[in-house]
Amino acid sequence: MHQLSKDIPRLVSIGLSRDRRQLLQESLRGIFHNDYAMRYLVPLLDAVVDGHVGALDTVVPRGFDGLFLAALSDSIRERLKAPWHGRRLPVNADKGFDFLCLGCHEWGLIQTLNFLSRAACRPSRKLAMLTSIRSEGINLLEWIAYHRLAGVEHFFVYANDNEDDSDELLRTLERNGIITYIPNETVVRGVYQIQSKVFEHAIHFLPEIRDFEWVFFADPDEFLILQSGTEACGTITDYLDKVPASDSTGALVSGVCWNWKWFNNEAVLKRSDQLNFERFKRSKPDRHVKTVARFRDVVGFGLSHKPRVMGGSILVNPVFQPVDLNSVGADPEYSVGQLNHYWSRSFEEFAAKHARGRGDRDFSQFFVWGNQFMGTPDEVPEALIVRVRGEIERLINLDGVELAHEIVRRAFDRWVCDANSRLNIGQLFEETKTASTIKTV
């Protein structure tokens, strides 16, 4: 069954209650006709509907379903139907989940039932953020602090192969209840393949995230700024209260897509301790978007810009106009808000990004992508900067966070020192700048 099939919302509406088991069983028989699926339908329903997890031991699936069931560890299988409700349960995304990077467009019986068990969870909280990072510790507190002020209640952070000593910072933030840290042990190397694995894992293997009605899929260089609301900026949660359940045609509104504002890096060589808001103040419009989605409706991902949502559902822009589901972008719409995208930041930070796996883009891209436009002035209110600094200070004062963040800062300084001994970043900056056709701000 394709993940966009309208059979999925129909099955979700049937649910997993015991008094509707017969109806669910008949519906599944009508969708999965092969002998293989029918052989395992009853024991799977015994496990998912009746809670007899041991029945899964009689199931020997093949193909993608086999990989999917193997990835359901004993601890996960025992909580097939368990909502989070504040409990911290161990979870990871080790190499056994790498198959998820292949995509899950066609669902088998096991994957379908697992999704139904997740969909049966009822959220008790409003908004979480979901991100995948690698060696992003140096700027992480600012990103978390700002979005906490904007109404985000929790952060689900997948991290793989960190080389900036940020794992302890992530563990410390988790101990303080700020984030859920999911180690992503993987042999997958492509950036988009890693993101695909992460988002598919969250959909199918992270029941904790089901406690949130809305999930914002974003990177740590992206900040969602609303144009109205409090004295500094509106809260995302206040805005989400206004999103309609459906449009005039009856289609379910499953997410809101926010356009990037691409910020000029202003040809800055060195990183400073100022906020991104203070360092970079000119931007240009961009069609690319990121999405805040009703997580119950999300069935998969292509790229990280837009989730795939259940058949019959739509994504809209911030003024509730439908957008193309098959494109990573949409016509820029900034009357309600914008997603500030600080892609390159300083040349030192760009070089660090380059070193941690974005080697497909040479150093000239710092100028070609980040500085070949003047942009227009785009500053945030001073009151917001003050509030963000105050929230960062609150995070720093949590148990162990100051020391963990200092370790990350020192690791970044060591990396710059080492890179200078190998590359001479200042000289590389000047040579690359000269070789690139740029407009200085």
Return the string of H and E elements: HHHHHHEHEHEHEEHEHEEEEEHHEHHH
Quantity of strands, as a count: 12
Multimeric state: single chain
Tally of discrete structural domains = 2
Helical/strand content category: alpha/beta
Described by strand count, sense and barrel closure, the largest sheet is: 10 strands, mixed
Tell me roughly what share of residues is in helical segments. Answer: 25-40%
Q: Which overall shape is indicated by the principal axes computed on the Cα atoms?
A: globular
Question: Could you report the average pLDDT, rounded to the nearest whole number?
Answer: 87
- Rounded to the nearest angstrom, the distance between the terminal CA atoms is 53 Å
- The percentage of residues in β strands lies in 15-25%
> How many helix segments?
16
Low-confidence stretches: 78-87
Rg of Cα set? 23 Å
Describe this structure in words.
With 441 residues, the chain is of the alpha/beta class. The protein folds into 2 domains: 1-122, no CATH class; 123-435. It contains 16 helices and 12 strands. Strands 1, 2, 3, 4, 5, 6, 7, 10, 11 and 12 form a 10-stranded mixed sheet that branches. Strands 8-9 form a two-stranded antiparallel sheet. Helix 7 (137-149) links the parallel strand 1 and strand 2 (154-159). Helix 3 (35-48) packs parallel to helix 6 (109-119). The longest helix has 23 residues, at 401-423. The protein is globular and about 70 Å long. The N and C termini lie far apart (53 Å).
Distinctive features:
16 helices, globular, 2 domains, ten-stranded mixed β-sheet, 441 residues, alpha/beta
